[in-house]
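Morning!

This is the sequence you dropped in the shared folder:
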Amino acid sequence: MGFEWGIIIFRTVMTYFFIVLLFRLMGKREVGELSILDVVVFLMLAEMAVTSIEDPDSNLFKTLIPMTVLLVIQKAIAWFSLKNSKFRHWFEGKPSVIISRGKLDEHVMKKQGYNFDDLMMQLRENGTKSIQDVEFAILETSGKLSIFEKSADENPISPDGFVVPLIIDGSIQHKSLENINKSENWLKEKLKSRGYTSISAISFCSLDNKDEWFIDLKNEMK
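The structure's back. Tokens below.
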């Protein structure tokens, strides 16, 4: 009996440290920022861990192997998501604009299964007194509501928020350009005037509501 308890304790400790290692390798994410994919992976890991601990006669490595496979899947999906925006949007979803320029979009709320009780609760959590104080409210893929309150000196340029991503990993975000009524040629001219001639060399480029640009080149630290 004592030997069996020793095995259970040993397997528990081994599984614990192995899962901690996996989480470290997967990357740092706050609990409130977990995507659906993260939740699925964590639930599967938890189920495998419980099965491994409850059955001392099973082969421990047969449990650690599928856990490692989950890590590989997670890293592969993260890589594809970084390289391909269409894959990222299909797999992880896209943020949804619940309030745009002070106007509620009930169609988007219905599509996301998001009701007024959810909205009011998250507004209260943000310290926002009323819907009428909100200029933009964006439901992130994690379920968190990003809220931008109205301000007299604000002049937002995009219904997708106050910062518009124009280039991600060398790819022009045509949807963002459409949202601000600009063309690809306009973007190239703006970049050229700032000394950037190669779109593919840009890791990330954004424009905010005050017409301030942020441009980051790929691997510029190397």
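Headline: Confidence is low (pLDDT under 50) at residues 155-161.

More detail when I'm at my desk.
O.
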